[in-house]
């Protein structure tokens, strides 16, 4: 009974708080308000510890969205995690996760940002290893250690901000951005954001973190952990605009978007496909941010949070009913077995693809039109539009495998739509995935900008999406594992499908040399010279001495007489001397 109450109370509190924050955020936009609050925690002589909070439309709306999604995720977890004996611990961990994100969002100060940043890293480790097995432990270590690189970069930027006299970065971004210190801080912040938002070459932890329970994945991939890096760069966007840092981020984000879209087409794990789609969308946010459009990146961040949380919740419902099977090849015919879940799943997939008038369309189409309007080279332009086609491609492939055809597992299955607690959470998010994009676009962009493009450019996004959908359908009709081996393409496919060997580089590549050297040291020192001069040598010497003493004592009469004679001889010699 207490389990029900903690889930329900958390849901009620977070949901009501989210509504209040979103409405307050909309009011702040209309009135153009910003509140900067300083709270002096301790003041001793000339030293004071001050906690600062920044409440503007961006932080309030983002906090509202985080609380809205986390409330529905907790409500959904009540049924999804019902068989877990320690669900209270799970809910408390999720609440700590949300609290860390709140600290990150409202902090204009690098010290308090570090509090939320490290809180996210620590709690995410606890959540990834929640199911205690070797795979989860490996994924947890990869997640934690990848994020530690960003934590160190943030600490370095805190150290360099000592030059400015305060850690409230928001004071210095405008007029100090051309100084050497601010450029260096910008580099460190960029590195921190790249690790947290899993850009190349730190991408491998994101699919590995799928070892966490599905409600956690829904929360992590929509509005908390992976979006922390994007949000930090939105706040620091003035450091990126018009210099080499922005160009570097644009290239890396474009490659991440392309790599993730390509990899998702060769993956068969349901959660990993959705994780790679998150990686692709993060690349899209980072790249438009690098081009100097932070409001657009923030807009896509919010719309993506809505349909991505829904996508994970639908995937969780399918996995829950499929007795924890995540392989899309063993699914099929879900549209007949779980119609309501399938409706939610398809709506979120279409929103991801940018289907007109769903949430994803308003942000994604606007981003692509701004890209077509901007002064870009051919390589970046290709990465944007080809990655959009790949998004539709892997989405259609996923729908083909899971929704159509016959059910591919045992005929004695228990697939149904009777999990009403999960369905209520999913249907609430589905309404937002349909309506959220239009409402946000009216509020964030009250005066629409005119994007005037030729007909070919205007229809390019639609053409690429249709081509991607057709290619995804064709790709699904034959089995990759056999056909491509026979075509001698297996090496290329394994390269594409394994995120360009990044998981191997960041695990085996990082671990092999230390483990190899450790083995050599163990053999040479622990089992070599230290044994030669240590334990084995002492043992052999003791055995030798004891056998000599035993011989001495066995021949005692002769030995005593001889030793007595030697003793007398020594005494005589001593007296003579």
UniProtKB/TrEMBL annotation:
Keywords: Electron transport, Membrane, Mitochondrion, Mitochondrion inner membrane, NAD, Respiratory chain, Translocase, Transmembrane, Transmembrane helix, Transport, Ubiquinone
Pfam family, one: NADH5_C
Function per UniProt: Core subunit of the mitochondrial membrane respiratory chain NADH dehydrogenase (Complex I) that is believed to belong to the minimal assembly required for catalysis. Complex I functions in the transfer of electrons from NADH to the respiratory chain. The immediate electron acceptor for the enzyme is believed to be ubiquinone. Core subunit of the mitochondrial membrane respiratory chain NADH dehydrogenase (Complex I) which catalyzes electron transfer from NADH through the respiratory chain, using ubiquinone as an electron acceptor. Essential for the catalytic activity and assembly of complex I.
Record EC number: 7.1.1.2
Domain NADH dehydrogenase subunit 5 C-terminal: 394-575
Reactions that this protein is recorded to catalyse: a ubiquinone + NADH + 5 H(+)(in) = a ubiquinol + NAD(+) + 4 H(+)(out)
Membrane spanning residue stretches: 7-29, 49-75, 87-105, 111-131, 152-172, 184-206, 218-236, 248-266, 273-291, 297-319, 340-363, 375-400, 421-443, 455-475, 487-513, 557-576
GO cellular component, one term: mitochondrial inner membrane
Family matches, as InterPro entries: NADH_DH_su5_C, ND/Mrp_TM, NU5C-like, Proton_antipo_N
The NADH-Ubiquinone oxidoreductase (complex I) chain 5 N-terminal domain, residue ranges: 43-90
Sequence ranges assigned to domain NADH:quinone oxidoreductase/Mrp antiporter transmembrane in this UniProt record: 107-390
Top EC class of this enzyme: translocase
Protein name per the record: NADH-ubiquinone oxidoreductase chain 5
Tagged with keyword NAD: yes
Molecular function, one GO term: NADH dehydrogenase (ubiquinone) activity
Family: Belongs to the complex I subunit 5 family.
Location of the protein in the cell: Mitochondrion inner membrane
GO BP, sorted A to Z: ATP synthesis coupled electron transport; electron transport coupled proton transport
Bilayer topology term: Multi-pass membrane protein
Superkingdom classification of source: Eukaryota
